[in-house]
Amino acid sequence: MAVLEVDNLGIRFGGLQALEAVTFKAEEYEIVGLMGPNGAGKTTAFNCITGLYEPTTGTVSYRGRDVTSLRSDQRAALGIGRTFQQVGLVRTMTVLQNLLTAQHARIRYSAGEGMFGAPTSVTEERALERRAMEVLDFMDLTHLANTKLAGLPYGTLKMVEASAVLATDPDLLLLDEPSAGMSPEESHEFGELLLDIRRTLGVTIVMIEHHVPMVVGVCDYIYVLNFGRLLAEGLPKDIQSHPEVISAYFGEEDTYGVA
Amino acid sequence: MAIDTTSETVELPAPAREAAEASAPSTFRPSAIGWARRYAVAGGLVLFVFALPVLVPDEASANLIALAAIYACVALSMNVLTGYLGQLSLGHQAFYGIGAFVSATVVTSFTLPFGAGLVAGALSGAVAALILGGVALRIRGLYLAIVTLAYGLLAENSLFLIRSLTGGGAGVVANRPTGFTSNRAYAYVCLGVLALLFAFDWRLLKSKAGRAIQAIRDDEKVAASFGINITGYKLLAFVLSGIYAGLAGALFAHQLGNVVAAPFNLTLALTFVLMTVVGGLGNRVGVIIGGAFFATIDTILELIHGVVIDAAELANVELGEGIDPVLAPVIGAALLVLTLIRAPGGIGQQISPIQNWIRGGRFDIHSMHDKTAALGGAGDGRS
User: Fold this and answer.
1) What do you get for the CA distance between the two ends of chain B, in Å?
2) Of all helices (H) and strands (E), which one includes residue B354?
3) Which range of residues forms the domain containing residue A245?
4) Quick one: closest CA in A to B371, which residue?
5) Which domains, and CATH codes, for chain B?
6) With CB atoms counted within 10 Å of each terminal CB, which end of chain A scores lower, N or C?
7) Chain A residue with minimal CA distance to B218?
8) What is the ipTM of this complex?
């Protein structure tokens, strides 16, 4: 059974058909790449999967369960974690507080127990903090635990965001342009880190990514979107030389060929 | 590919490393004597506040302490909605007034004990806030602020004018509990409720509900991606704010002894906003100081005026009589402007070096200029 199955997904914003009949899936333990030029509908697809948008047609299934009608937070609680293009973190909190907030759905004590300071909540808060520090340790960010987000450079914020989404204890990880703003070396290191995350935590990953060497180096399978439709799919090496993909990214060859 | 072979742990990308060096790791831990000093100062401050009703010279001043504690409760209420959830409320006189009338009615008409009045006041505030919270699920920001304004005016101009509920001009009698009828004793009741709310609010922010509410303030999409139920926690913030305000209203009713509709007007709602912003949004201690200040400003001005008059009499200078009623609002407005321009974190920002020190940090006067302290940060910098 596939971890994520998107079937015949379509969404329309007024006159714009942002997605049409998009079907793809991610099998257990796979790293799936979602590529395509700007405006192809990649982030829109993510928003449909996580429940921020309600698709006009089609279904989203997670481990065989149709989650199309669930709220965003319910899907997150099931184990669908995501990052955002514009860094999905709580800006006014410290790094550690962000990781504590991210563990929200895993907390066993009730909101009331927390507010009245029940002993169970106090004990669990300590456990949450330990776990947050473990994640920061894994990501080599321990030294930033009590730092406020304001003023941290973009690349670091992306790493903190990745830590926060790991703290949600995801089973399926959706990464929206994780290496944006990174240098080639950094994105290479990030690719290694992704493989490490999969090895250590056994998660399935779907990522939107433009950085071709990283996609090719890390992904097991790639889907290419263009104008809201699925343009191509296949193994990284096939996608690299796929004529339609090349024309979608660089334009038609004969546009330049014919004078 | 370039791998840095000089350091043992390579994974960290360059920007993260730079940031690490820029912000020195906070490894500072105070010594045993340092902690003793901190506890002594914190304990001394608490003791001072609780000694106030005894320290003040007369019963009238003790009544002022009670009012300061009541306003501080309202400030905590405003802080939940405006500071933590980030939603401006211009209709808080509604919750406050409803709490006051319900408590007075429960105690006087139903002859139930004072405690039941407080609970009923708190619950009625919660219900009133829950109704407003329902609207908040559909709109937010400026538009919701307008709705809160309308909500407050609606309560003020219709609900509070129903004679059978509020007793018209005669008002509703609201007696104080037996044993606490003196102003000094009643001030302790108010301070006690304030202390309870303070502790509750502290636990709120240290637990998942507080974090969820603050996450929603910053970004609802991100909050949802962390598994936070946006609807539930928004309503919770409204309900908590309503409970705090309803409790404060109940205390206010019994402080007066006879509660009429007149004080629960828009001016009061604006004062609530003013004292919370000047106190420092998101900073628990800051808003309490702000509330206490705005509760007492009129009396303090009169006191100063009295001294000035006496001095003038001694010097044989003729002065006008009575204090100009415009003076207090002008001071309030000036403080608001100063806050917005100089210190968006309000009083909370000014006292943050002391707060950080008491929490076990180094005393660093420059942390006062930390811009990020403006919202939420100052009140809970360290976790």
Assistant:
1) 39
2) helix B346-358
3) 1-74+206-259
4) A150
5) 52-380 (1.10.3470)
6) C
7) A90
8) 0.91
